[in-house]
Amino acid sequence: MGKGQRATQAYKSTEFIEQVRDEDGLVVGNPFKLAPSNSGSLLQDEGLASSKKTSSVSPAPEAKQEKTVSELEAVPSLILVTTYLSFLMLIVFAHLRDFFGKLFYPANYVQLRVQNGLAPMVSDFESLWTRRLYGRIRDCFNRPITGVAGGHVNLLDRVSHDFNNTFEFTGRVRNVLNLASYNYLGFAQSEGPCADKVEAALHEHGLTQGSTRAEAGRSVL
Q1: Distance CA 210, CA 13 (A)
Q2: Considering the entire predicted model, what is its pTM?
Q3: H/E element holding 20?
């Protein structure tokens, strides 16, 4: 039977009732036919009918799956190997510096040893990344600014004489483009289009209702 059609079959004495209904549920054609002599002939008839239908209907062509090509460029093996070797070399030198530093400069590693029966806050291995790797490039991050952050920020220049363990301000201030936070939209500024629209909305709608909706009613917001 076709799509959207329903068929119910029943046996009553010598009559074979086949009801074919359309999409609206109405019976199509004469539902009464002669009953088959046995159930085997019924199965045989149904098998022939199904074989005719399958032979008359051609199989649908298989949809070709398009191969998706990754937009990311494949990293050459040489770059991968050299990158891992570079990190390995940094870690090895960091452990060597800690080893010789504990021998010749023990005072610089007091915070990493047990003192008065108290364990250190972090072990030397846990703080290895901060002390030996991140500390070398710390000047690239956590840059201090002055004033309100907006589309541009006032950056305080600093310099270090002990491999970024401590910093000294030079007194120079530079106005640079802000690419470090969402304040570049002007949300934190006291002037500009964002501040003007916020002030106008406060004058029109107020700060708050001061009570529940049942008591104070509702606003246009």
Answers
A1: 82
A2: 0.47
A3: strand 15-21
